[in-house]
Design brief:
single chain; 197 residues; alpha+beta; Metal Binding Protein, Guanine Nucleotide Exchange Factor, Chain A; 2 domains; six-stranded antiparallel beta sheet; three-stranded antiparallel beta sheet; globular
């Protein structure tokens, strides 16, 4: 029976089940099987199955999750026009249009695209800029900071680590304890109160 290969559908189903249940790398024996390894690479490429670590507030620990990668067209079909423009086209909402600054209860601001925990309400402050501002993210694991020179200015763009949603920019003019100001588009966030986490 060693010469008989299981169908690709069977192998892909087992790989998918394993990744969903355990959210961790596959066992070594699958990597050592030439055909399984090739199918695994194709599967991961097609479904964007790259694992990353993020901090989950509800579980109060670092967890391993699949990175979410969708095409431009897929995001356009899933999001409203305004949210798509901000999160996918790296747009900026007009200042003083976001109501998240009025949120006073304890809770978490999550990525509107994938639900990753990004900022706590306790890290929010009034920067006077007209955009929601935070002095730190929930965890450095949950955001990506990268150089942004698009408008001829040297800035640091802030992205969601799980889905690469454009959130805004970070500046070095914030309050203690970090001295940072994460200037974030409200349309890139959704608020979940502490009791509903």
């Amino acid at each position: 029976m060693a010469g008989i290969l299981p169908s690709a559908d069977v192998i892909l189903g087992l790989v998918e089940l394993y990744l969903l249940v355990y959210s961790q790398p596959l066992p070594l024996f699958l990597y050592n099987n030439h055909w399984c390894y090739i199918i695994l690479l194709i599967f991961r490429e097609r479904l964007g199955m790259t694992n990353i670590q993020i901090y989950d507030v509800k579980q109060n620990k670092v967890v391993t999750v699949g990175k979410i990668e969708k095409s431009y067209a897929e995001w356009k079909n899933l999001l409203t026009e305004d949210v798509f423009d901000i999160t996918t086209n790296r747009g900026t909402e007009p200042p003083n249009t976001c109501l998240l600054g009025e949120v006073k209860e304890s809770g978490v601001f999550k990525c509107v695209r994938c639900g990753t925990d990004l900022f706590t309400n306790s890290a929010k402050f009034d920067s006077g800029t007209g955009w929601p501002s935070y002095y730190e993210p929930i965890s450095p694991l949950n955001v990506i900071e990268k150089n942004d020179n698009i408008l001829g200015m040297k800035r640091t763009e802030v992205l969601c680590a799980r889905c690469n949603s454009h959130l805004g920019h970070v500046f070095n003019d914030g309050p203690p304890p970090t001295g940072k100001r994460y200037c974030i588009n409200g349309l890139a966030l959704k608020f979940v109160s502490e009791g509903k986490l």
